[in-house]
Fold:
Amino acid sequence: MLSRRHVLSGAALGLLLPHFAAAKPHAHPKSTRSRHRPLVLIDPGHGGKDPGCIGASGTLEKHVALSAAQALRRHLLASGRYRVAMTRKSDVFIPLQGRVEIARRAGAALFISLHANASTDHRAHGTCVYRFAWRASDARAASMAKWENSAQRFENPALRGASRQVLHILATLMRRETQIHAAKLQAAMVKRFAAHLTMLPIPAPHARFAVLSAPDIPGVLVEMGFLTNKREEAMLRSPTHRDRMARSMRLAVDTYFATVAQPVRWRS
Ligand SMILES: [Zn+2]
Structure:
């Protein structure tokens, strides 16, 4: 059946993103195997001058995020199914838009941002997985400005003559597709986490996270737990606990790629 996805993935994406259509297994026969493994981009939150939140005992979010990202990287690579890249591998500051650009330039099929939560209520605890969505509370003008920007990203010589309306429609379709995909990863991850973690009352929320704003890369932002809660801070400091979380995330990524026939963006 020729679904909207096929139309979008084949024609529109090929037009918008020339690299997408460039799945040329014969062009580089020696690297065919690696070219067909999707790239998962792991994004450890914060870093450098930005410590993120500070835990009950002084643990910095940026360190927990990086350690968790390294654990996830190991699990994904051990599966042999994915290529993995990270927005940062050390304690450096990277602006949010820079992280999005890293993912887009690398041709990521999936984006996973790792964070830890904080609250003035030290009893607050639990895990949740966010995905991107335009907030209903956003000012219309602000949304439209952002929309304009996302459409401009796709401009290429083939579309130079296309009307802005066409670009808007294509960007809209692509972002909608991306959000549907992100929701699948989000649901799979929440299900895996719920088997061994306390989840927040709303375990799968959505918000307008700048770091998840790539219109063509499905992504989630994991709030792994509250550093301001002594128990969860201790858990997040534990390599065993982080390893267990990483395993759950890897299994969720497996589920995602098993259920999504054609990633929104899949290029080497
Ligand atoms: Zn954070």
